Amino acid sequence: MKRLERHRLKENDIEAFARQARERFESRKRETTAVLVALGVILVVGVGYWAWRARIDSRAHALLAEALTVQQARVGPPADAAGVPGLSFPTERERAQAALTKFKIAADAYPSTDAGIFARYQEAATFMALGSPTEAAALYQQVIDRAGNRIYGQMARLGLAEAQARSGQYDQAINTFKELAQRKDGPLPIDGILMQLGRTYREAGKRADAQQTFNRLVQEFPDSPFSADAKRELDSLKKTT
Q: H-type helices in 148-189, by residue range?
């Protein structure tokens, strides 16, 4: 009898163990299924976002390419008159105005993409070329707001300082140039920034600061392509002292 009872107890233990194992397996199975489903959803969303991002970038680059094509178009008589194929404009100003419209379209359509940010930068630079520094300054600021410290943002800061100087806002321009000149590990050439800073000092009537800046350029960057210009600026300042 005792042997039979022990046998039954063993069978009950085995059944209980098997039941627990099944329950644990089913629980783990549900958890595993949930994890797999979640991973699948994340994968689908990730692939979808990547595909959407790729489409956006492709469209933005296509609009930018159209604008650059206009910007680089030939200036001269039409193809049927000159016998030269391709897009052309009668004057450089008309070409710039046409490119301005194209850059604005690209930048407005996709302002957060690299292509859109570069289009906005080109829009600002084109306004500068057309003699409209106030409009250019506002657009350069938009690029700075979008790009931050990336290369386009640094280039836009330089452009903003030039636009401020052209508008007669010398103090703002000087401060921006000085800030850029302190970033020795930045992507912009310090010698070129110093050249712009010195000229802005000169235009603002700050001759001593201009002379100090040109001297710094010559001393720190003797092999710079701007060194000869800086020396000429120094000679000019000495003659008018």
A: 151-166, 170-181
DSSP per-residue string spanning 36-69: HHHHHHHHHHHHHHHHHHHHHHHHHHHHHHHHHH
pLDDT in tens, 12-52: 555 555 566 556 656 665 665 555 555 555 655 554 544 54
Closest CA to 103 of 141, 144, 64, 139: 64
Q: What phi and psi, each to the nearest 5 degrees, are found at residue 221?
A: -130, 65
| % of the chain at pLDDT higher than 90 | 61
Three-state SS at 75 = strand
Cα(195)–Cα(226) distance, integer angstroms:
7
Give the phi and the psi of residue 89 in degrees, each rounded to 5: -135, 150
Cβ–Cβ under 8 Å, residues 36 and 88: no
Burial class (CB in 10 A: 0-12, 13-18, 19+), 208: exposed
Report the C-alpha gap between 111 and 142 in whole angstroms. Answer: 9
Beta-bridge mates of residue 75? 89
Closest CA to 138 of 159, 108, 119: 159
Residues whose CB is less than 8 angstroms from the CB of residue 120 and which lie 6 or more positions away in sequence, other chains included: 103, 107, 111, 139, 142, 143, 146
